[in-house]
Design a protein that fits this description.
- The chain is of the alpha+beta class.
- The protein has one domain: NADH Oxidase, CATH 3.40.109.
- The protein has helices at about 5-10, 25-35, 55-65, 70, 85-115, 130-135, 165-170; strands at about 45-50, 75-80, 120, 145-150.
- It is globular.
């Protein structure tokens, strides 16, 4: 088990993946971590679509403005908000915000779990919603929020610059 703070510090956005499959046990651990993410009212107002087939990952890459590296990962997870699940309890705020927050937190948990397991990933938020929906089978009632390709990295990107805490944190 990796130290949490070390995982956060060492995680990188990986865009070159090794031609090596992700073991099913590791994939299930990543999905289980996403399932443990906190959500508004514990409603889990999101869905996760798992793309294993090369043709599905290529369709997702095309939907993501031809970010072809996505197709090179052995699996891709598509996190979608499910607004109606949150709206039932929280009305418009649940529909407009909480379901999106739920999907983003679940994706973050999956991304950190992947890093803890020695897997690479990268958050993809630039895509055409309708094309992503078509690539995942045109489910009704969901909004794509993020695509997370996951696999063994074939590159180790350098750390990116971060804002200083003194510039980021504003004490009241």
């Amino acid at each position: 088990m990796s130290d949490f703070f070390e995982v956060v510090k060492e995680r990188r956005s990986v865009r070159v993946f090794a031609p090596r499959p992700v073991e099913e046990e590791k994939l299930q651990s990543v999905l289980s971590a996403a399932n443990q993410a906190p959500s508004a009212g514990n409603l889990q107002a999101y869905e996760i679509y798992l793309a294993r087939k090369s043709s599905d990952r290529r369709a997702l890459a095309a939907a993501a403005f031809n970010q072809d590296f996505l197709a090179g990962a052995p699996v891709a997870l598509v996190f979608c908000a499910h607004p109606a699940r949150a709206a039932n309890r929280y009305g418009e705020r649940g529909r407009r915000l909480y379901s999106i927050q739920d999907a983003t937190v679940a994706c973050t948990f999956a991304m950190l779990a992947a890093a803890a397991l020695g897997l690479g990933s990268v958050w993809i938020g630039a895509f055409e919603d309708d094309k992503v929906l078509h690539a995942i089978g045109d489910p009704e009632g969901v909004i794509p929020i993020a695509i997370l390709p996951v696999g063994y990295d074939a590159e180790r990107p350098l750390p990116t610059p971060r804002r200083l805490l003194k510039d980021l944190v504003h004490e009241l």
